[in-house]
Design a protein that fits this description.
The protein is α+β, with helices and mostly antiparallel strands and about 280 residues long. Helices cover about 35% and strands about 20% of the residues. It has seven helices and twelve strands. The strands form three sheets. The chain has a six-stranded antiparallel beta sheet, with helices on both faces. It starts with about 20 loop residues before the first helix and ends with a strand.
Length: about 280
């Protein structure tokens, strides 16, 4: 990992931007796959950025622990995590690889590639591919192609993707974030707190802060809770929408409400979203 913030180059937005899909898109494709009976496979590229060529010369200081020669620096031959343009360059590499295979990128979703007859779809999230194939032969063919291009772990039927756990049973898939909820609770010392039965008190009125902000880690817990809400817990979306409005100047009261939401999640951590072909 390099300290990219110290990189001395001139760049524009088009050279650093790299798209990522929304979690709603992942759920939509899962719903489509379950409905059509498509095979689902997870591929994870190992050390993804290092599979891309560096678009310009990059020189770095010799890392600590290695003998240094005065006046000498290192020239990189491969991309490393932390470079300003690394994500964009890797995305261009993936885009070229997909197009060479014959897949077409959707105009409206830059991280989704499909075959001409829609018998294969893949969702790209940086170095993770979530693939949906009409049959095993189509999936095996694509997997072999990827393995020829980049070092990849073939996980197969997804068990966890972006912190979301997948459980397949009876033609349906159940999505939950139990492990992530437990991790967040531990980070904020709430793992042993008393669970609650609702995300916020009924008719609760939030107070606007006209003074100083709290020094509690309000922004951190809001970020974690928002990710959970977007992933598998729409039941906390309302309170998260309300809390997010106070991020510029939060009170300790707002932080306490966020902890309340976290305690509610601890009491309902096994809840999630079930996607089935039919209700």
């Amino acid at each position: 990992m390099l300290w990219g913030f110290k990189e001395a180059i001139e760049f524009d937005l088009n050279s650093v931007y790299s798209p990522v899909p929304k979690l709603e898109l992942m759920r939509m494709l899962l719903s489509l796959a379950v409905k059509l009976g498509y095979k689902i496979c997870h591929l994870d590229v190992v050390a993804a950025y290092q599979h891309s060529e560096i678009p310009h010369d990059v020189y770095i200081e010799v890392p600590d622990g290695i003998k240094k020669v005065p006046g000498k620096v290192w020239k990189l031959w491969k991309l490393l995590y932390g470079l300003i343009t690394a994500a964009n360059t890797w995305n261009r590499t993936i885009d070229s690889m997909m197009k060479n295979y014959g897949l077409k990128k959707l105009v409206t979703e830059l991280c989704v590639y499909t075959s001409k007859n829609r018998d294969f779809i893949t969702l790209v999230y940086v170095d993770d591919f979530l693939c949906f194939a009409k049959n095993d032969d189509i999936q095996i063919k694509f997997t072999k192609y990827v393995l020829e291009k980049v070092t990849t772990w073939v996980i197969g039927c997804p068990r966890k993707f972006l912190g979301i756990r997948f459980t397949f049973a009876n033609g349906a898939v159940f999505l939950d974030q139990t492990d992530y909820i437990q991790h967040v609770a531990k980070c904020f010392h709430l793992q042993n707190a008393t669970p609650l039965s609702k995300p916020v008190e009924q008719a609760y009125k939030f107070t606007i802060n006209n003074g100083e902000s709290t020094n509690k880690p309000f922004w951190s817990i809001i970020g974690c809770l928002s990710y959970i809400a977007a992933g598998t817990r729409p039941d906390i979306s309302y309170v998260m929408n309300e809390l997010s409005q106070y991020q510029s100047n939060p009170l300790e009261e707002h932080y306490n409400v966020a902890k309340w939401v976290m305690r509610y999640l601890m009491g309902t951590q096994n809840c999630g979203i079930r996607i089935a072909a039919s209700v």
